[in-house]
Amino acid sequence: MTGPIRVAIVGMGKIAHDQHVPAIANNEAFELAATVSSRGEATGGVPLFRTLGELLADGPEIDAVALCTPPQVRYALAQEAIAAGKHVFLEKPPGATLAEVAVLDEYAAKAGVTLFASWHSRYAAGVGHARAWLAGRAIQSVSIVWREDVRVWHPGQAWIWEPGGLGVFDPGINALSIATHILPPFFLEEGTLFLPANRAAPIAALLNFRDAHGTPIAMDLDWRQTGPQTWDITVETDAGQLRLAKGGNELFLPAGEHKSDDHEYPGLYARFADLVRSGTSDVDIAPLRHVADAFLRGRRELVEDFHD
Amino acid sequence: MTGPIRVAIVGMGKIAHDQHVPAIANNEAFELAATVSSRGEATGGVPLFRTLGELLADGPEIDAVALCTPPQVRYALAQEAIAAGKHVFLEKPPGATLAEVAVLDEYAAKAGVTLFASWHSRYAAGVGHARAWLAGRAIQSVSIVWREDVRVWHPGQAWIWEPGGLGVFDPGINALSIATHILPPFFLEEGTLFLPANRAAPIAALLNFRDAHGTPIAMDLDWRQTGPQTWDITVETDAGQLRLAKGGNELFLPAGEHKSDDHEYPGLYARFADLVRSGTSDVDIAPLRHVADAFLRGRRELVEDFHD
């Protein structure tokens, strides 16, 4: 392939406007060739289509799609794009089930296109350095606290409360994407999901994981936190404490603070370009597998109704 | 290794007595060297230990363990056995979470021992022939109906209703182990789990899967069926109908009926011997992954309390 990768964004919601459009605009490996939205308006001078099918039939030539729709409809769009020979960037979570992602992975390999299950938090400013610092150190315990106000971050997003929408695991999977990137493999021992009586997905969860060495990893997810918000991962080691704050963007080590600029979506698009150029895929299911395990293994407790 | 594989059964419940003990007795590749049970009595002249730790410390030499305990405690026992260099046969389901099975798989590979996640229904008399008959045929639709009386099959088994115990998916995973063996890969599109208000696990489920070609696969699981019991998989194809009945033991094809003798557990132990002799593992997570997906993606509906 010569020239930029012509990419279409499908699903012009908040994340597409806030992150994908600027990340594509600032990466010369890409050109935003089209957008797809059943309701939205055109972005700049870029052609807008109502469905992916219309774009594929009548639109400009594209090489790739970035799927930013709710996860419940992602499989069908990904299959349609792969069938048309397009590379596919999946927003997180990569699907509504583990099995559908496995089917897509196999299908993309057969079709010779790139499938990228993206985990934006892994590209947060402190995460790479945290991973390097932890390698080889003895980990004694881990605490993950992800507490935010759902009314601020997901106003009126009904799909997030539906089956397949993950509830509080929608932000929680970001924490899990970091934890699975910087820690040895771990698994859920027991946990509790807190469900509003009028919703299908949890508003909070308390989970106890362990790794193969028995190291405890405690996770506290809550969507009911007003005021200051918390997205922290604290790791106690034989060499002192590591703390990632602000969703991985700030890193505190015994030797002092490490900060760098936010580059989550620029990092994702750089990675996607590498994958497309090298003809490979990157589909790490581990974060979604932990969420499925939490639904499978966790005890459910009803809490008061939630109204937007 | 020369001579028989010396195996210990851990967890002397119904499945151990009914299936494992006779299957081992009738396979000269194995010798039952010990049993482990916190409460049970000794089986024949075989030494009995109260814990796996006591067996490993004070018992006869063994080469392998068969873990027949409830899934919630399987990981710790498997890890202990692998650490002692023993091959491990896991009853189904192989664990209470997907992530713990992945950790065990990696650990067994590093330790150079065999890990076998067993799915006994795949060895039911009609399944191998059904798989061969379906290969290359165009599948139009699939119906899986698994309806039995929990009071008959799981009397007083409290663990089966606890988180990690799977509820009606304990038999349902047998159907899924056959379906994932004879059909192309498929995934859950939508479903409903029916939960007794006083239990943590479902008593029934209605699930709609599809494969990559769009073929519908409907699954009806119910633990409330008294009278005749149903364990059927019906596959409509371009060459007529295939029906597996009685949990895979009877096969009906357009050309007539195919029956053979039951060989589920003998088949499992023959496979386990092959794996141990060849130094390989067999850990297919697909059936448990579908169950996790059902818990993740399914809608929950409360039904009346269940009392044993």
Task: Describe this protein's structure.
The structure is a homodimer of 308-residue chains. With 308 residues, chain A is α/β, with parallel strands linked by helices. Chain A folds into two domains: 113 residues, 3-Layer(aba) Sandwich (Rossmann fold), CATH 3.40.50.720; 148 residues, Dihydrodipicolinate Reductase, domain 2 (2-Layer Sandwich), CATH 3.30.360.10. Helices cover 31% and strands 29% of the residues of chain A. In chain A, the strands form two sheets. Chain A has a nine-stranded mixed β-sheet with strand order 14-13-12-11-7-10-9-8-15. In chain A, helix 3 packs parallel to helix 4 and helix 7 packs across helix 9. Chain A is globular.
Helices and strands, with pairings:
The structure is a homodimer of 308-residue chains.
Chain A (H helix, E strand, L loop, with lengths): L4 E6 L3 H12 L4 E7 L11 E2 L2 H7 L5 E4 L6 H10 L3 E4 L7 H14 L3 E3 L9 H8 L4 E9 L2 H4 L15 H14 L3 E11 L7 E8 L4 E7 L7 E8 L2 E6 L4 E4 L2 E4 L4 H15 L7 H12 L1 E5 L5
Parallel strand pairs in A: 1-2, 1-4, 2-3, 4-5, 5-6, 7-10, 8-15
Antiparallel strand pairs in A: 7-11, 8-9, 9-10, 11-12, 12-13, 13-14
The number of domains of chain A is: 2
Instruction: Summarize the main sheet of chain A.
Output: 9 strands, mixed
SSE sequence of chain A, one letter per element: EHEEHEHEHEHEHHEEEEEEEHHE
Decide which structural class fits the backbone of chain A.
alpha/beta
Computed CA radius of gyration of chain A, to the nearest angstrom: 20 Å
Helix percent band of chain A: 25-40%
Q: How many strand segments of chain A? A: 15
Counting copies of identical and different chains, the oligomeric state is homodimer
State the CATH topology of the largest domain in chain A: Dihydrodipicolinate Reductase, domain 2
